[in-house]
Structure to design on (333 residues):
C-alpha cells in the first residue's frame, strides 16, 4: 500500500549539496505499524514527509494505494493527502481555535459543514477521551491531551494511513506509553496503516511490526521488529540498541567457559529450558547478562551465559532442538 522506490532527496545550501535520502526502497503493507529509526540527521523527517509529498523527492517513486503521488495534479494531490493523516512532535495545533475547531479544521478544508461535521467531531473527541475538553483551547491541555487532539484531527477525514513524526518525543515516559497504546488500538480497530519515525528504540519495541534503520540517508537494515532487535545485523542498529544497556563483561566469566547468547521467544521464554538441559547433559552455567521483555507484545528473553564443567556442545544442540536460538561468543580467557 505504501512503496518508496529509489527515493532520493538532496538539499542545497551555502555549504554545498547534501543528500538527505539516497535511493530509499521501502514497502509498508496495509495495517502494518512500520517504524523508521535513526540518529539525528539520518533523514527520518525527510523520509516521512516524502510519503505525503510535503517533501518532493528529486528522484524515485512514492506509491500510496496504487497511485504514484508524484504524478498527481495539485487538486488530486490535495485529495490524496486527506487520506494520509499526520501527527507531529510539537502537535502543530491552531492555538487560537478550540479543540473542537481544531478537529473540524480538515473537514472544513474539504468543504464539509453543518451537523455532519459536528457529529464527526463529537465522535472523534469521544473516541479519544477528549469530549470534556471540546471548548477549551490547546494551551489549557497537557502534552498528552494535545497529542490526542492531533490524532483526532489526523483521523477526521478517515485516512487509511497515519504518519507519526516523532509523535512521542516531547512527552514524558508515562504519556508516551499512553499515546503508544492509543496508536496500537487505532491500528487494530481501524486497520490503520501507521508509519512512524523516532529516535527512541523503545517506541519501536512497543508498537512496530517492522522497522527500518536509517543512517546517512540509507536504509542499513530492515525487518520484523523482533528479528532486528534480537539479532541486529548492522553496527548502527547494534549501537542504538546498546544505548542505556550495560554490555556483558566477558572478563567476569569463569576461565575456559564457553560463552553463548541464548534467545528464547514466545512461551518458551518462561520455561526452565536452560536448567533442564544443563541437568540432562551435566554442564554448569553462569549468567553474565540477561533481559526478559516484550517486543510488540511477544515475550522474549535473552541471556549471555558461560558453560563450564561438562559437554557444552551437547547443551547447545539440546537447547537448539528445544527452539532456543544459540549464538556462540567464543571462549572466556
Ligand atoms: N530544508 C532543508 N534544507 C537543507 N537541509 C536540510 C533540510 N531538511 C533537512 N536537511 C538536511 O538533511 C539531512 C536529514 O535531515 P532530517 O531532518 O530528515 O533528519 P532526521 O533524521 O529527521 O534528524 P532529526 O532527528 O534531527 O530531525 C540533515 O543533514 C539535514 O540537515
Amino acid at each position: 500500500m505504501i512503496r518508496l522506490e529509489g527515493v532520493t532527496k538532496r538539499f542545497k545550501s551555502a555549504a554545498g549539496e547534501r543528500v538527505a535520502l539516497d535511493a530509499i526502497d521501502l514497502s509498508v503493507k496495509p495495517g502494518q505499524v512500520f517504524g523508521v529509526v535513526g540518529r539525528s540527521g539520518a533523514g527520518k523527517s525527510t523520509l516521512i514527509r516524502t510519503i505525503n509529498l510535503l517533501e518532493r523527492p528529486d528522484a524515485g517513486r512514492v506509491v500510496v494505494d496504487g497511485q504514484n503521488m508524484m504524478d498527481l495534479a495539485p487538486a488530486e494531490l490535495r485529495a490524496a493527502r486527506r487520506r494520509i493523516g499526520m501527527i507531529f512532535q510539537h502537535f502543530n495545533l491552531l492555538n487560537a481555535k478550540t479543540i473542537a475547531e481544531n478537529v473540524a479544521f480538515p473537514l472544513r478544508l474539504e468543504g464539509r459543514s453543518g451537523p455532519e461535521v459536528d457529529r464527526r467531531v463529537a465522535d472523534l473527541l469521544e473516541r479519544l477521551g477528549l469530549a470534556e475538553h471540546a471548548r477549551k483551547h490547546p494551551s489549557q491541555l497537557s502534552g498528552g491531551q494535545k497529542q490526542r487532539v492531533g490524532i483526532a484531527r489526523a483521523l477526521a477525514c478517515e485516512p487509511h494511513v497515519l504518519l507519526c513524526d516523532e509523535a512521542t518525543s516531547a512527552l514524558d515516559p508515562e504519556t508516551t506509553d499512553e499515546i503508544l497504546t492509543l496508536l496500537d488500538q487505532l491500528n487494530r480497530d481501524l486497520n490503520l496503516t501507521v508509519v512512524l519515525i523516532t529516535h527512541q528504540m523503545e517506541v519501536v519495541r512497543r508498537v512496530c511490526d517492522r522497522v527500518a534503520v536509517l543512517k546517512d540517508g540509507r536504509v542499513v537494515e530492515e525487518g520484523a521488529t523482533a528479528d532486528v532487535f534480537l539479532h541486529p545485523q548492522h553496527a548502527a542498529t547494534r549501537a542504538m540498541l546498546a544505548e542505556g544497556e550495560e554490555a556483558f563483561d566477558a572478563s567476569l566469566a569463569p576461565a575456559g567457559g564457553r560463552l553463548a547468547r541464548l534467545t528464547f521467544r514466545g512461551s518458551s521464554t518462561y520455561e526452565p529450558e536452560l536448567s533442564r538441559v544443563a541437568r540432562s547433559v551435566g554442564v554448569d552455567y553462569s549468567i553474565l547478562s540477561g533481559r526478559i521483555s516484550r517486543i510488540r507484545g511477544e515475550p522474549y528473553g535473552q541471556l549471555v551465559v558461560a558453560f563450564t564443567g561438562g559437554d557444552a556442545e551437547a547443551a547447545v544442540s539440546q537447547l537448539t532442538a528445544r527452539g532456543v536460538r544459540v549464538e556462540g561468543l567464543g571462549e572466556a580467557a
In short: The chain is about 35% helix and 30% strand. The mean pLDDT is 93.
